[in-house]
Amino acid sequence: MPKNLIKELIASEPEFEGCQGCRKPLDFDFTFAFQPIVDVASGEIYAYEALVRGTDGAGAGEVLARVNDDNRYAFDQACRVKAIELAARLGLKQKLSINFLPNAVYQPEHCIRSTLKAAQTFGLPVQQIMFEITESEQVHDKAHLTNIFQYYHSQGFITALDDFGAGHAGLNLLAGFIPDILKLDMELVRDIDHSEVKQIIVDGLLEICQRLGITLLAEGVETEQEYRYFKSKGVRLMQGYLLARPGFETLPGVSLPQC
């Protein structure tokens, strides 16, 4: 996508207090890899998660290491627009999951405008876009994050809590807002087939999700044993290397275990 088009989509928004950070130019470029989220019950791809990468294929860590207080707002806005443009260009028909930086959202009603304009420009319906918290940032203001999620939900976006069970996505955050999807932290997924403690914890989370109308997603599934365990528990959505690795600027297919 031409850099000037990203700038145009962001810069065309009306001025408001605090928006200047979104308009600062980035001194580095980036792109995305896409990893499938699979509905294992149907065998179909539910969504693709956009994972930031360097243009040379460098991992997310190298890219995010260049994000600081001066460019955080601009990077977050550019990520949204570029993920939507690239996914649309690749012919995405499923949902698109975009990580966002909660500390880079000044006012949700203003900061979402370039996202909405990008979705309209590239023909991606709002209902196909899912926003989830990125694992790279600790949430400093949970009340502000709750407000962001509530606004995004009201606009028709799918909402997800990423890395649930890790530091920034705990029960206290869930008490303030009910997301559409809860992504189970991969540390709880790892080797769950022979960890009674993890099984008890996940059983409790499954009951919570069922009662609150939340869809549980098992993230980081890497073995057939983990896959079989979650499938036996009725978990439909899974993501992980067992099913598909991220594809650099491509939308990869999936391979489900024969079990």
Q: What does this entry look like structurally?
A:
The protein has 259 residues and is α/β, with parallel strands linked by helices. The protein has a single domain, classed as TIM Barrel (Alpha-Beta Barrel), CATH 3.20.20.450. It is built from eleven helices and nine strands. An eight-stranded mixed beta barrel has the order 1-2-3-4-5-6-7-8. α11 links the parallel β7 (215-219) and β8 (237-239). α4 runs parallel beside α6. The radius of gyration is 18 Å and the shape is globular.
Task: Present the secondary structure layout.
Elements: H1 3-11, H2 20-23, E1 31-39, E2 44-53, H3 60-64, H4 72-89, E3 95-100, H5 108-111, H6 113-121, E4 129-133, H7 142-154, E5 158-164, H8 171-176, E6 181-184, H9 186-189, H10 196-212, E7 215-219, H11 224-232, E8 237-239, E9 247-248
Parallel strand pairs: 2-3, 3-4, 4-5, 5-6, 6-7, 7-8
Antiparallel strand pairs: 1-2, 1-8, 1-9
Helix pairs in contact: 1-4, 4-6
Strand content: 15-25%
Q: Oligomeric state of the chains?
A: single chain
User: For this structure, what is the CATH homologous superfamily?
Assistant: EAL domain
> Mind describing the biggest β-sheet?
8 strands, mixed, barrel
